[in-house]
Amino acid sequence: MPYYRVVGEIPHKRHVRFHKPGGGLYSEELMGEEGFSSDSSLLYHVHPPTAIVKSEVLPDPAEEARLIPNQPLLPRHYRTQDLARQPGADLAGTADLVLGRQPLMGNDDVRISFVIADVPSDLYRNSTGDEAVYVYSGTVRFESAYGAIDASAGDYLIVPRGTISRWIPGRYGGTGGTHVQALVIEARGHIRPPKRYLSQSGQFLEHAPYCERDLRGVAGPLLAEGEDVPVIVRNRAGLTQLTYARHPFDVVGWDGYLYPYAFNISDFEPIVKRTHAPPPVHQTFEGPNFVICSFCPRPLDFDPASVPIPYNHHNVDSDEMMFYVAGDYSARQGSGVGIGSITLHPSGFTHGPAPGAAEAVIAGMMAGKVTTDETAVMIDTFRPLLLAETAATAEDTEYAWSWARAARGG
Ligand SMILES: [Fe+2]
What is the CA(311)–ligand 1 centre distance, in A? Predict the structure, then answer.
């Protein structure tokens, strides 16, 4: 994270005696990236964060979704509303935001899943990398050793690797009758704001499409009581359940640059040009060998001669995944793509708007429609995305032929 925060109580210097009111010392825990050589936070626990009493292997629902090459090479279209029940759903048909994740695609750098969660998750620590959880609908309370963040539709929640957390659907952890839908991006490394938007010391620059004021951290410390508390840990080998002697949410204060935070897509300030601007203007985060972009409502390109929708393009080094969240997708008219759709346009295939879409949007501009209300989340990866076999139930297998169909007037 680019800047320093302090939450709760901390002593005046690092690594000095910090006494508990009832006697004894608080236990320090340094959460740090890149072996003491990058961002970190120093947490103060009531109980030692090292005290575990049991360790057991857990079955991993995500591993059941085998990833296979996109072969034969095709552009793909999935409808999230058609996805089969999540692999982590229990007999009552309920699922949580951790074990209920349904993998859609992935590679060695990133795994992308969709989840519909209606019950609280167990405590969870992902030790394989950072997560970006994009809330598509509903509300969810994110609780962690750092504190809690209440999130709703349009929020990206960035969770650093190793954070112990849990997800509780419903506003402020309310109970029953509510669910949350989310796109989950699990990186094999760190997810950060793009470097080009940051000063040397990490401050957002004036030309950045968002800044520190748009990032929401935790409100305060979150203290929970409990003994023999299970925590599901994901590492490269799979899932383990570690049982902690005392509840890990016992941090009275912390400070540093490494912590979970939320950013709402509606706080992204779109960058527009007189003629069409390419997706890098929409970039919101970067991860190892991938980027995350936010397409937000904005004025259409405003040159009188502009073609105000994307040109056909072939990013020869990237696969492009797009999640259509809200708005009117003029450029995709006739393709079958709508709200809730996810498309994949792989390297090896040239993609673009449906034939005839440009003419339709230009006619709309002449009639006074000079803005677009589209909202979408895009993930571009620099290595090919493999496909989860289980997502095939939600695939629109006619999508690949939609450009030819439109060109022929079909
Ligand atoms: Fe594209």
Answer: 9
Pairing between β-strand 5-8 and β-strand 251-256 as defined by DSSP bridges? antiparallel
Spatial CB neighbours of 267, under 8 Å, sequence gap ≥ 6: 210, 214
Residue 313 Cα, ligand 1 centroid: separation in angstroms?
A: 6
- 319 Cα–ligand 1 center, Å: 9
Copy the structure tokens of residue 113: 């899943």
Ramachandran region of residue 354, left (φ > 0), alpha (ψ -120 to 50) or beta?
Answer: beta
Q: Ligand 1 centre from 103 Cα, in Å?
A: 22
> pLDDT tens across 203-259, in order?
999 999 999 999 999 999 999 999 999 999 999 999 999 999 999 999 999 999 999
CA of 363 to the centre of ligand 1 (A): 23
Nearest to 55 by CA among 232, 247, 238: 232
d(CA 410, CA 402): 9
Higher pLDDT, 293 or 330: 293
Contacts of 324 (CB under 8 A, 6+ apart): 332, 337, 338, 339, 340, 341, 342, 343, 374, 376
CA-based nearest residue to 152, from 174, 182, 177, 125: 182
Task: Report yes or no on whether pTM surpasses 0.90.
Answer: yes
CA of 380 to the centre of ligand 1 (A): 9
Tell how far the Cα of 378 is from the centroid of ligand 1, in angstroms: 9
The average confidence (pLDDT) of the chain is: 93
How far is Cα 288 from Cα 286, in angstroms, rounded to an integer?
7
Pairwise CA distance, residues 386 & 404, whole Å: 25
Rounded to the nearest angstrom, the distance between the alpha carbon of 130 and the centre of ligand 1 is 25
Distance 351 CA to ligand 1 centre (A): 6
Report the separation in Å between the CA atom of 322 and the middle of ligand 1, taken as the mean of its atom positions: 8
Residue 89's closest CA among 128, 129, 117, 48? 117
